[in-house]
Amino acid sequence: MSTLLQVKEVTKTVRSNGEDLKILKECNFAISKSESVAIIGRSGSGKSTLLSLLAGLDTATSGEIWLAGQPLHQLNEEKRAFLRKKHVGFVFQSFMLVQSLTALENVMLPLELSLRKNAKQQALELLEKVGLSDRGHHFPNQLSGGEQQRVAVARAFASKPDILFADEPTGNLDAENGQKVEALLFELNAQAGTTLVLVTHDRNLAKRCQRQLVMHAGELSEETAIREESTQNNGRVHVA
Ligand SMILES: Nc1ncnc2c1ncn2[C@@H]1O[C@H](COP(=O)(O)OP(=O)(O)O)[C@@H](O)[C@H]1O
Ligand SMILES: [Mg+2]
């Protein structure tokens, strides 16, 4: 299998209260095309920081990140933006929809940005796929959390990314909506071969992924077997 993402000795140090704080410590791993990978770990362990580096939204302090054969660590913001547009999709815990646009317009956005023909027709089909064909003209604040996240997933589908990063995509949803969003993500993985990298607190969601990486105080390791603790609390691990 070919490597889509390669991370070598990546660190991230931030300045906090006049001190250097190393929030990522020499992370190493590789992800192949079409793999599904979960990143799990306690709150504050560095998961979101890592995800933003992998997606080229932020830069590492040291180390190398190769995405689709390109050295993200050597590219300026403009070139990283180009690489993101070409390969990357995101789904965030807080949905990140454009509030002044309707659901349909939010889904049309990446299609229009890439000058795709029939943007409206494709966006309508995607909304139907996520079960929201009757909500196209609603603005985000007129939709429930679950509906907003499904719009965000439809928008991510629209850009047909090679790799989709999702930061706690079901974290703000009830069980039913969480399952709908989860099903959509794995459908994208199965049908389009989209590589999935999910940060999650949900052990059941993590278990559906082929691999699990565990973040512990900025150090990343591969978890070989997820313990069966999840069945005792409905699959959700509660952290402070
Ligand atoms: N820009 C920053 N300045 C200072 N501290 C930060 C910054 N970004 C993240 N942190 C700290 O780094 C740690 C990891 O954060 P984060 O990646 O958001 O963790 P997680 O997503 O696992 O909850 C936390 O202790 C957080 O407070
Ligand atoms: Mg986080």
TrEMBL record:
Entry GO MF terms: ATP binding
Hydrolase is among the record's keywords: no
Any Pfam family: ABC_tran
Keyword list, A-Z: ATP-binding, Nucleotide-binding, Transport
SMART domains xrefs: AAA
SUPFAM superfamilies linked: P-loop containing nucleoside triphosphate hydrolases (SSF52540)
Domain ABC transporter: 5-240
PROSITE patterns named among the record's database cross-references: ABC_TRANSPORTER_1 (PS00211), ABC_TRANSPORTER_2 (PS50893)
Keyword Nucleotide-binding: yes
CDD domains: ABC_MJ0796_LolCDE_FtsE
InterPro entries tied to this protein: AAA+_ATPase, ABC_transporter-like_ATP-bd, ABC_transporter-like_CS, MacB-like_ATP-bd, P-loop_NTPase
Family of the protein in this entry: Belongs to the ABC transporter superfamily.
Record-given protein name: ABC transporter ATP-binding protein
Organism: Catenovulum sediminis
Taxonomic lineage of the native organism: Bacteria, Pseudomonadati, Pseudomonadota, Gammaproteobacteria, Alteromonadales
